[in-house]
Amino acid sequence: MKNENKLGKTEAWVVLDAKPDARLVYGIKDGVDSAALSEAAEKGRALEDLLRYVDVKKGDVLHIPAGTVHAIGEGIVLYEIQQSSDVTYRFYDWERRDEHGNKRTLHTKQALDVTKLGPPPEKAVSSTLPLEGTGRLEQLLSTPYFTILRYTNCENALLSADRRRFGMLTALSPARLYYTDRSLQLAAGQTVLLPANGEDLRLWGDEFLFSCPTVK
Fold first, then answer.
1. 150 and 180 assigned to the same domain
2. What is the dihedral of CA 70, 28, 84, 102, to 10 degrees?
3. Quick check: 83 pLDDT over 50?
4. Residue 22, SS3?
5. pLDDT at 2
6. Are 77 and 132 found together in one domain?
7. Neighbouring-strand partners of residue 88
8. Domain count, the chain
9. H or E, element range at 165
10. Residue 149 belongs to what domain range?
11. What InterPro entries does the record tag this protein with (predicted)?
12. What angle do CA 73, 78, 79 make, to 5 degrees?
């Protein structure tokens, strides 16, 4: 993004829960060009007709490359991981206002400059990886910027330390971590930061998500 002297913000969503018929905005409809998108953005609500809506359910994983239009719909709880960046461009805000009646700032021109047209990637398909201990380990997604793993039904499952990168482990149900002669209890939703070159962990719990930078 030359306006900010940055390279964009690739993200990923793992759907943790979703009500029936829940939908996300995930890209722009096929056949929409930049001129049509620009005209609709100037009109506000007209933009909604050009957005691509996808049905989602618990367990879905969506890869959101930088420049992909995206928005969370009603009744969805998700886990988000993203490339390190503090820039978000917004060209529509669903007519929302703050407690003072003011609309949030829009960045229409900048957003249109970087928006990717055409369909986004298909929902990610997981692959099973070997795991020491009882449980299951899946790679949900790997991008040039980050990797997301899921551990399920763990009893003494090994999460090996990695000297090359840090990681973040989130418990999606009550869990316990064991390392050397100590242990740590986690409530559902709690996250721990695992430093590079730290200690091996043994996981006990129903479900964890682990994310880390992708080693190149």
1. yes
2. -50
3. yes
4. coil
5. 52
6. no
7. none
8. 2
9. none
10. 127-213
11. Carb_Metab_Reg_Kinase/Isom, RmlC-like_jellyroll, RmlC_Cupin_sf
12. 145
38 in a structural domain: yes
Annotation marks residue 165 as catalytic: no
The reply to whether 109 and 135 lie within a common domain is no
pLDDT of residue 40: 81
Q: Is 109 helix (H, G, I), strand (E, B) or coil?
A: helix
pTM of the predicted protein model: 0.86
Summarize pLDDT for 145-164 with one digit per residue, the tens.
999 999 999 999 999 998 88
Q: How confident is the model at residue 1 (pLDDT cuts 50, 70, 90)?
A: very low
pLDDT digits (tens, 9 = 90+) for 18-74: 999 999 999 989 998 888 888 887 776 678 888 999 999 999 999 999 889 889 999
109 and 39, same structural domain? yes
The answer for residues whose C-beta is within 8 angstroms of residue 182's C-beta and 6 or more apart is none
What CATH number does residue 201 fall under? 2.60.120.10
For residue 6, which of 106, 97, 114, 81 has the smallest C-alpha distance?
A: 114
- Per the domain annotation, does 148 fall within a domain? yes
Rg (CA), the chain: 20
Q: Is 191 contained in some domain?
A: yes
Name the residue type at position 88. Answer: T
Given 90, 104, 150, 164, which residue is catalytic? 90
Asked if the structure places residue 121 within a domain, the reply is no
Backbone angles phi, psi at 47, to 5 degrees: -65, -30
For the chain, report the end-to-end CA distance as a whole number of angstroms.
22
Does one domain contain both 78 and 151?
Answer: no
